[in-house]
DNA sequence: CATTATTCAGACAATTTTATCCGAAATAAA
DNA sequence: TTTATTTCGGATAAAATTGTCTGAATAATG
């Protein structure tokens, strides 16, 4: 059951680390984040470039450069990250994948599937990085091993 | 959002077609099913071999051979098909994919994710091929284009 | 027995996803 | 101005998923 791609999982984890471990300086380097959450620096760089292109991050090159949130953490919702990394058609996928759906009658699992998708959408839309970060900082939950 | 692999989607659609379009004879040929639901005969054959190996189908070779349900349609639940085709660890996947999870504290989205997985599990466990087939036969919903 | 229809088994190819790597561009600091 | 640090861009590779194909095994039928 792959609700999120590796790319999205890494992206969310990396952003949560950023928000939960503020560096003091304006920008945080990708290398440091990759080291801390233990994933490939180059892969994370690729993910962050996409998030920068989509307006979720700012970036700045050179020494003491790095990346920073383009908006307050309270205004970045999980759904924004997912849309940026998985595409805006993220919720258009189907459980059975009938050809030409949306036009004719629904398939036998549509009602159920619709509800599941709705639940996920509501939750991803209502949860901000700030919200999750607070849980991490208070050590209510964990992000690292 | 890929909740089911193509393999599972095809498998479920094919089984639903079988149940909703009984052939009169004991076995139904894979070729006919593949033609009716418009997918590759060879791919469907591979899927059905797996379902046969997992005890969900019987098979019989030769002319007038084919496949048949190993149990009444009312006793084959969606979850059985998913477990057979996606593996028994289907519900063990994580939203964030933290390393070494299940041991230490949960991640910040665990509560939500647990609920979503539970909903899906309950539904897949409670829905039989018979149940869905009735909806199809009564033309309440569609399976084909 | 020969022919035909069917599943079985697995090799192979195409596509997508995931991951690695290298060099260029920008920029701060020495 | 030189050097070190960092993101940017994209090539390449590895792995997983999806799809195609060929031949063998099995069994009914003429
Ligand atoms: S009816 Fe709904 S769940 Fe079923 S294939 Fe169409 S959009 Fe997807
Ligand atoms: S805490 Fe729960 S949702 Fe989060 S990674 Fe672990 S098992 Fe998955």
Automatic annotation (TrEMBL), chains A, B:
InterPro entries: TR_Rrf2-type_CS, Tscrpt_reg_Rrf2, WH-like_DNA-bd_sf, WH_DNA-bd_sf. Pfam families: Rrf2. PROSITE patterns: HTH_RRF2_1, HTH_RRF2_2. This is Rrf2 family transcriptional regulator. It comes from Mariniradius sediminis.
């Amino acid at each position: 059951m792959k609700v999120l791609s590796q790319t999205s999982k890494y992206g969310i984890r990396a952003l949560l680390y950023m928000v939960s471990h503020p560096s003091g300086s304006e920008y945080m380097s990708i290398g440091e984040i990759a080291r801390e959450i233990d994933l490939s620096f180059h892969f994370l760089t690729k993910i962050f470039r996409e998030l920068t292109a989509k307006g979720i991050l700012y970036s700045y090159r050179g020494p003491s450069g790095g990346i920073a949130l383009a908006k307050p953490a309270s205004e970045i919702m999980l759904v924004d990250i997912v849309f940026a990394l998985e595409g805006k058609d993220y919720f258009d996928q189907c459980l059975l994948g009938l050809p030409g759906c949306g036009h004719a009658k629904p398939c036998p699992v549509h009602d159920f599937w619709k509800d599941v998708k709705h639940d996920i959408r509501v939750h991803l839309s209502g949860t901000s990085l700030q919200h999750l970060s607070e849980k991490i900082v208070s050590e209510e939950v964990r992000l690292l091993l």
